[in-house]
Amino acid sequence: IRCWSNIPFITVPLSRAHGKPFAHRSELKHAKRIVVKLGSAVVTRGDECGLALGRLASIVEQVSMLQNQGREMMIVTSGAVAFGKQRLRHEILLSQSVRQALHSGQSQLKDMAIPVLEARACAAAGQSGLMALYEAMFTQYSICAAQILVTNLDFHDEQKRRNLNGTLHELLRMNIVPIINTNDAVVPPPEPNSDLQGVNVISVKDNDSLAARLAVEMKTDLLIVLSDVEGLFDSPPGSDDAKLIDIFYPGDQQSVTFGTKSRVGMGGMEAKVKAALWALQGGTSVVIANGTHPKISGHVITDIVEGKKVGTFFSEVKPAGPTVEQQAEMARAGGRTLAALQPEQRAEIIYRLADLLTDQREEILLANKKDLEEAENKGRLALPLLKRLSLSTSKLNSLAIGLRQIAASSQDSVGRVIRRTRIAKDLDLEQVTVPIGVLLVIFESRPDCLPQVSALAIASGNGLLLKGGKEAAHSNQILHHLTQEALSIHGVRDAVQLVNTREEVEDLCRLDKLIDLIIPRGSSQLVRNIQKAAKGIPVMGHSEGICHVFVDTDASVEKVTRIIRDSKCEYPAACNALETLLIHRDLLRTPLFDQIIDMLRVEQVKIHAGPKFASYLTFSPSEVKSLRTEYGDLECCIEVVDSVQEAVEHIHKYGSSHTDVIITENEKTAEFFLQHVDSACVFWNASTRFSDGYRFGLGAEVGISTSRIHARGPVGIEGLLTTKWLLRGNNHVVSDFSEHGSMKYLHESLPLPQRNAN
């Protein structure tokens, strides 16, 4: 813990021997010494006269946050010329006498010409003000800043270089943020240009090369170059086909077309890339990003240091496989080819995958054993997650049976006509089913999810990106290999991709131009994180599985204990396991209630008492902390209700709209429960565990959705399809249907074509 001005904060333990730059973005969080270069376009306002104060304040806040974590921050800043220009223009206007202003007339005063200002004078006038502004902003975070002005000679003269190096090290040792800028008031003028509407921007060369030189001299871990573009593009930004380059490697510059430089400043993107590559060669990692975008500028620096996918990251280590963006494009192309296959061909792929699961059983179980041993040795997985991670012969056999069900039911899933309408004579409209596009399925500790989801994607003609947890890496690898082997029989191997790069889930959720639907399979925390991180991509799933069983007064003694035992104990880690048991008040202190409690004790289920239940007991179990808890283990809550109506109200208040059950012999009470409980699955005298795609006859499921749009409950093939409209006409135009036109709308419903009986 460190303290400044009596404000404590946690420091990040950072230590790294300088030498090689970081190979991956995820390693940037270990950067201790960081240079942030602020381009002219970042620091100055849009009118190029004066500073963008809000943006600058946000940058200072981020730098202060990182400094207070124990990092050593340095800033290379532009802006002195622009700030000085603003001050000098103001002084010139004020210095004109009132008589001159009146003599010239109001109309001429408005159009009064401001003389072209000499850049060195602007820099001299602006440097003190710029530094005063930085000092005032950093003071708000109890951080001291110091100004250092440099010229070319400071790097060419050995003694001056040593002095500069020593000064910077001493400032960093004292927890001071150095603010470095070129001494534009004394350096020789460059070639004339019109960057600042008549003001020549004077620089050693440009601040990009200054920042790179400084970063290497000071052996910094990371150089962040902020400009007014998102990063490096494969063609000029703004062109139709321009794509942001996530990672740039030395040697790739030959394939890049550079656009014009920014509206202000001496550098352009080409200068930034050259400077970045020079710094990279010197052992410093580099990221070029946008520091002006209002939606991201408030956290762009901290996002980069956290390893998020922002801007262009320069790396010397080129991955062996494709990037995740390339994988998504491959999945889309493969998915479109897959959708164009005949239904029998898609079914043949799934049948082949089902056969491989049983034929290659030993290899799969051997890979799974490695995952289990590693997880147990590291002790990082709770018992419920270990159970989900484990595969067995019976699980593989069940998987194969489920896949064959999918294959059998997928014959007419894609391209099925669900509506036909005759709009007018010779003008027929059809609504047909089509794949959604590219699915991203993120799952943890469940390798059996991979073949299930792959089969459903194949059956529905969707491209698929899979991101599994590292705890199941060996299992996922062999299962994906078998999936691609099955896809190869019809040349669509690329339709299913397994993401093996160090891609963060949050970064995957930002690929809104490449991914059409995200399906999370895992803990409620995982689902919530993905729902929060997804930007513009719909998420299908449920964040919690808080399932209820309500035991009514008319419940059968024989059914109650069987259904409760199965719902809670058969697989307590499942999302469709019982979490809250609701007991009708009239059943308290009856033999049936005693049987329920005895059965739970025998099964070693830990009981938590709800508030009302606890009030009836002299010595109650531990009172529940929340009635909205998913235990995922041999634990459950018991609460008392006075009626079926109260049970429904309790479920609506504390449930997650997943699966809820009533046990009763009273049909009227049961129907009331079935009609009024607003959950994805509502059962009468049946275990909550039936809420499953395989048990519903869907073959498998990509998940259980509790949303109210598109798909709800266990989601099989139908939930992975959308529709498109096909209109077949014969020289039809809308004007023919106007008031004086020759045609009339018919809007007749037409019979649907016969579905394949097989």
UniProtKB/TrEMBL annotation:
Keywords linked to the UniProt accession: Amino-acid biosynthesis, ATP-binding, Kinase, Mitochondrion, Multifunctional enzyme, NADP, Nucleotide-binding, Oxidoreductase, Proline biosynthesis, Transferase
Enzyme Commission number, as recorded: 1.2.1.41, 2.7.2.11
Lineage: superkingdom: Eukaryota
Species per Swiss-Prot/TrEMBL record: Leucopsar rothschildi
Biological process annotations from GO: L-proline biosynthetic process
UniProt subunit comment: Can form homodimers/multimers.
Entry similarity comment: In the C-terminal section; belongs to the gamma-glutamyl phosphate reductase family.
Gene Ontology CC entries for this record: mitochondrial matrix
Subcellular localization: Mitochondrion matrix
Domain Aldehyde dehydrogenase: 323-588
Ranges for domain Aspartate/glutamate/uridylate kinase: 32-290
Keyword match Transport: no
Known function: Bifunctional enzyme that converts glutamate to glutamate 5-semialdehyde, an intermediate in the biosynthesis of proline, ornithine and arginine.
GO terms for MF: ATP binding; glutamate 5-kinase activity; glutamate-5-semialdehyde dehydrogenase activity
Catalysed reactions, semicolon-separated: L-glutamate + ATP = L-glutamyl 5-phosphate + ADP; L-glutamate 5-semialdehyde + phosphate + NADP(+) = L-glutamyl 5-phosphate + NADPH + H(+)
Pathway connected to this protein: Amino-acid biosynthesis; L-proline biosynthesis; L-glutamate 5-semialdehyde from L-glutamate: step 2/2; Amino-acid biosynthesis; L-proline biosynthesis; L-glutamate 5-semialdehyde from L-glutamate: step 1/2
Primary location class: mitochondrion
HAMAP family noted in UniProt: ProA, ProB
The protein's name: Delta-1-pyrroline-5-carboxylate synthase
InterPro entries: AceGlu_kinase-like_sf, Ald_DH/histidinol_DH, Ald_DH_C, Ald_DH_N, Aldehyde_DH_dom, Asp/Glu/Uridylate_kinase, G-glutamylP_reductase_CS, G5K_ProBA
